[in-house]
Amino acid sequence: MVIEMRPNRSASWRQVKYALFLFAIPVAIITIGWALSGVWIILPFAGLELGLLAVFMYRVNWQTHHRQTLVLTADMLIIRQGFRQMKEQRITRTSCRFEICKTNQNWQPPRCFACNQHQRIAIGHFLNTADSRALCRYLLTAGVPTCDDKWWQQ
Fold it and tell me: Which domain holds residue 44?
């Protein structure tokens, strides 16, 4: 069994650059107008504003390329996660269990963890609420022991 997970990506890097360009046009027009009026001190602040917006949008776009893969074999659970280079963690199936931590509010996604005696690895922490619930339902049928922190609400 193999589960490949990626966060929802609403815009590609090309679309983000286009949006940055569209944000830069009115900022440039206003900044040039103020600079021609003699308030040239606004130039570095406008540049800083656009630069910070570009850094934050790049960082958010970069986070959407995170991947996580679960491979469940007869004797191992292999978790690969990362951006370009995938970090791999292995848990023997006999010592493995899935923990599902539900929140009190229905609008927050449940959190899933793969655990053994020594480690606790978050699974699908970047998924939205609907995808996280689907992952939890799928993990319940995976054939690995599952602990639910709100078992009485079933």
Answer: 7-63
pTM: 0.70
Domain match, 53 and 85 both: no
Q: Which amino acid is at 107?
A: W
| Alpha carbon 18 to its chain's center | 23
- Identify whether residues 59 and 118 lie together within a single domain: no
Rg (CA), the chain: 23
Residue type, 69: T
Question: In which region does residue 147 sit, left (phi positive, over 0), alpha (psi from -120 to 50) or beta (all else)?
Answer: beta
Q: Two tokens at 6? A: 């990626």
Considering the domain architecture, whether residues 53 and 79 belong to the same structural domain is answered as no
Query: Could you tell me if residue 2 is inside a domain?
Result: no
Sorting pLDDT into bands at 50, 70 and 90, what band is 7? Answer: confident
Q: Which is nearest to 5 in space by CA: 92, 87, 114, 80?
A: 80
pLDDT tier at 152, thresholds 50, 70, 90: low
At residue 105, what is the residue type?
A: Q
The one-letter amino acid code at 76 reads M
In a domain, 1, yes or no: no
- Which pLDDT band, with edges at 50, 70 and 90, does 63 fall under? confident
